[in-house]
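LOG
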Amino acid sequence: METYNMKILAVFAFVLAGCLAQKPRPCSSPRLLSGALMVSTQNEKLEAYIRYEYDAMGQRIRLKELGAYDNKSFTYDALLLFRKAVMYEINHKNHICKKRPLKADFHPMRIPKTAGLLGQAVVGSSSGPGQGLLVNTWMGDLPNKQGKYVSTVTEFGCIPVGTSYQTDRFGWVVTSFFNNVIGITDPGQLNPPDFCPDAEMEDDEEEPVDFVSLFL
C-alpha cells in the first residue's frame, strides 16, 4: 500500500512539474459564471459582500450586495444590461425599480493579451493531490493610463481568484472571488422583475467610471 501511495504522489509531482514548466498565456474566463466576491478599498471606506451572476454572451450582470460605506451599512441590488445600455436598481421589499442609463462599457472577465505575467504559484500545498490550486498572477495598465491592475486566475479554466487595481477615489480596490460555479444557477436573476419593465428612465448625469462606482 505504501508503494502504491508513493507512485500516486510521484505521478502528481510529475504532472505538477509539467504544468509549472509551461508558460501561462492570457485567457478568458467562462462566459457564464455565478458566485460571490468580497470588495474592500485601501482607504477603508468600502467593504462589501456580493453575490453575482455573469453572462458574457448576453452582456448581463446581476449584483446583490451587502456592505458598509463610511461606516454605514447598506444593501444594493442591480441588474446591468449592457447591450440595452440600461441599469435597474431593484428593491424587492417595496417593489420599487429605478431604471437608469448605463454608460459603462461591458468588460468580459479575462486576462488581456497586453498583460504581463508576474508569476505562477500553488495556493495551499503541492504535497499531495487536491491540496493546492495552481494560479497565475498578471499585471497590466488600466484604460486611459488610470493606473495598474493585478489579477489572479486559475491555471485551469481561467476562473477569477482576485483582482487589485487603482482608483483616484478609493486608492487600491481589492476583489476576492469564491464559490464560483460555471453556469447561471438561476437564469431569472438576469431578467428584470415583473415590476421593473414599466419603470421610467431616470436622468443620470453621473457616468460610472470604474467597477466600484457601479455599487454605490
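LOG (cont.) second protein
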Amino acid sequence: MNRKGKLKGKTKKASMVKKPPWLELEENVWANILHKLGAIEILETAQKVCTTWRRICKEPSMWRIINMTNDGDLSDMDYDLEEMCRYAIDRSQGELVDINLEYFATGPLLENIAQRSGKLKRLSIACCYGMVCEGLVEAVQKLPLLEELSLAHTTITTEGIESLGHSCPRLKSFKLNNSLYMGSGDYFENEDVRNEEALAIAKNLPTLHHLQLIGNSMTNKGLEAILDGCPHLVSLDLRLCKYVSLNEVLSSRISAQIKDVKHPHDSLSGLDFSFKACGEEDDEDDMFDNY
C-alpha cells in the first residue's frame, strides 16, 4: 500500500509541474525568433535544441533567406560550408529569394543555386576573388528574377556583366566593391583597361537604380559613360575610386542627375561588409594617404 501510495503521490506531483513558459510559445513565434539566426547557427546548434525547433527548422519558409556569414577561417571549422549551404538550399525547396555567401563560393555551388532557386532576387558574394568568375556568368543566365547583386572582393568579367544585362531584366542594384589596392585594372596604365567594368555596366545595365563601385579603377571616362548609360540611377557610390577626378562640370552633372552620391574621398563608415574582413590591413586614414 505504502509503495503504491508513494508512486501515486510522485505521479500526481510530476503532473503538477508546469512547463517552462518559453515552451508554450506558438511555433510561428519561434520561427520569427529563429529567422534572426544565420544558416550556420541554425544547422549546427538551434535545430538540435528540441523536437519543436527541429521541426520548425525543416520548414522551407525558414530557408527563403540563407545567410552564411562567417569569419573566413575555413581551416579551423569542423564543418564544410559549401556542403552545409547545399543542404540549406535543398531545405528551401525552391523558395530561396536571398542568399549571402562569404569566402567559400565556387562555380559549382553557384550552378546549384541557379538550378534550384529560380525565385532568387538577391545574391551577395564576398571574398571569393576569382573563384566564381565563369560560374557567375552561367548562373545569372538562370536567375531572371534577380534584383540585387552584391560582389565584394569577388571578380566578375565583362562577359558576366553582359550576362546580367541580357538575363536579369529586373536588376536594380549592383555592388562591385574592392579595396583601394584590389580594383581590377589597377595595375594597368591603359585607360581603356581601367574602364572596362564601367563601360560594360554603362552598356549593359541601363535599368540600374543603385550602383556601388568602391575601389574601382575607372577614370572620368568610365564615370561619364555610366552617367550616359544608366539614366535611372538614384544612388552612386564612388568611394576609393582614386582615378576619378570630379571637376566642376562633372560634379554639377552628378548632382543634377543623381539624388544620393558618395564621392571618392568620403568615409567608408556604414558599409555592410568590412574590407578588413577580407584581409585589408590598413585603416581608413592610411587608405586616403595613398591618393
